[in-house]
Structures are given as structure tokens and as C-alpha cells.
Amino acid sequence: MPGQGVHRAARRRRPAAGVVDGAGVLVGDSPAPLRARLGPRPGPSARHVVRTLWRSIEPLLQDMADDPDRFDNVTSLGVDEHIWHHVDERRRGPKALTGMVDFSPDQAGRTRARLLDLVPGRSGKAYADWLAARGDGFRRRVAVATLDPFHGYKNAIDDQLADAVSVLDAFHVVKLGSQVVDEVRRRVQQSIHGHRGRRDDPLYKIRNVLRCAEERLTERQQARLAAAMDADTAHLEVFVAWQCAQQLRRVYHQPDPAAGRRLAENIVTTFASCPIPEVARLGRTLKKWRREFLAYFDTAGASNGGTEAVNGLIELHRRVARGFRNRENYRLRMLLIGGGLVSPHLK
């Protein structure tokens, strides 16, 4: 109708009455300035406030980080690495940081993991240098040292923590078994079909079932697994590898430590002679780590779980902050978040 265009034009010219921006200025005729004022970008004044606050807090955090008393009473020590940036290392230094975590039990026997420090690099030297800097008293107090299957950290523990029992993390041991199953499945898939797994390939359809614990499989999943194994005799290799991974997992689910240790010793003895090359390689790996693998049963199940939990906190806050550019600022903030700093007023 002719009158509708006039009304639309009038509505477009009408100001958004009563809307006030953050500075107390009435918004004009167009909604565009309102959108600009409500945008997510902080203004220059907000950036100055954040910078001023950090400059005020940073010296306090640095004093707490330099306090040697925060390393007292550490009897259980974990180590792990994480990536703190994803840009060119020439601009920001090493991407990986080695993190040390205290997971010593308190007087009530509860474990409260706290981040002790972050140092650049993922190497045995980075860890060994940090341990050496802590002094003889600190190193003598550490009774349990957990780690992932990385020889650099193992060498540092052997050199600097001679009195500590080093323990291979249970999660990473089970993960090694799961990786073997995936590798065997892919190799058999390629040898039969000459290509990677596709939707209708039997082994590809059960790839997630093969990652499940045997006792948790539903009847439907058991039927799918059986059908896939019956589809080709070559699939028997995959089934044997899966059974080996399940046996490795059951090590940590025995009724008592003695039973778990017996099963673990049997695995170390037998896996290396398996005709499946991936399983044999896993057996050789476990033989190399035999002492650390079996130490789990002598330390009441010590693991790197607390270390991984602290790593999760670090990753969460790094994502919330959209990354960091200054490694020392990053270290101080993560020490604060990870419980590694104690105010002198709370001592």
C-alpha cells in the first residue's frame, strides 16, 4: 500500500528514545552507534586499568614465587609437559614447558595437587636442572616420583632423586595398549583393502568398540565385535591385540596389589615374544620400564593423576585468556591458579 513506505521511513528516522550508552550519552537516530558501543572490544581505558592492576600484583606474585618455603614438605612429585603457545618459537621461545606438581598427601591422607613450577623445554636437562636448584634437602625428602614413559624425565629422576621410587603413570601404560590395538587395526585394514578405513569396512565400524573395556561392552557391542572378527580370518590379529590391551588394563583392576603385580610380571615376560610385531614392541617397552611399571604396586597406586588435573586447569585458563605472550607472566599466573603460591599472610 502507498502509506506503508511512509511509515517505514518514519520508523527508521525515529531515535531510540531512552537508551543511554555506558558514558551517559543518549544514543542517536541510528542503531549502528549502539552496536558499536556494545561491542566486545575493551576501550583504551580498560586496557590501561588491566595493565596497571598487573603491574601492582606482579611484584607480590614474584615475591611468593621466590619464597623457598613453598617447596617444603614435598614427598610426592609429578612431572608432565604442556604446550603454552602455538606461534613461531623464534618469536616466543620453546612451545613446551615442563611442569612440576606436588601431590603429597596431607595429615588426613588426602591429596591436593599444586603446581610448583614451570620451566621452558621438554627435556631431561630441564627437569634435572630444576631438581638440582632445589637443593639436597628437597631431593632427599622426595620419596615418590611419577612420570610418563619419557626417558628424559627418567634420567633426571635417576640422577637427581636417587632415593625416590619412580612410578610409571597407569593412564599412559593403558594408553600404550590402546595405541597398539589402533596400529594393528590400521595395518590389517590396509593389507586387506589397500586403503584407510571406510564407513562399511568391518574393522572401521568397530574402531570405538575396540577402545572400550571388555566388561563394559553391551550385548549389541559384543555382537558387533564378534561379527567383525568373523568377517575375515585376518582380523584375528586385531582380536589378539585387543585381548592383550585388555589384559594390560586389568593389571590396575585386581582385588589386591599382589595380584596386580603377578599379572604385570606375566605381561612383561610374555608380550615381547608375541608374533604380532606391535604387541612385541609393547612388550619390549614394558621390559625397559619394568621397575617403574611394577613400582605402582609398591606405592599404594601412585600416579600422575594430580599432575594431569593441574595441567587441565592450566589449559582451561590459557584458553579463557586467549593465550599469553610473556612466558614469565604466564608462569606467575599459572602458579597462582595451580595453588603453587602462598601469601605470607596465610602462613
Automatic annotation (TrEMBL):
Occurrences of domain Transposase IS204/IS1001/IS1096/IS1165 DDE (ranges): 77-334
Signal peptide, first to last residue: none
InterPro entries xrefs: Transpos_ISL3, Transposase_DDE
Domain of life: Bacteria
Xref: Pfam families: DDE_Tnp_ISL3
The protein's name: Transposase
Organism the protein comes from: Microlunatus antarcticus
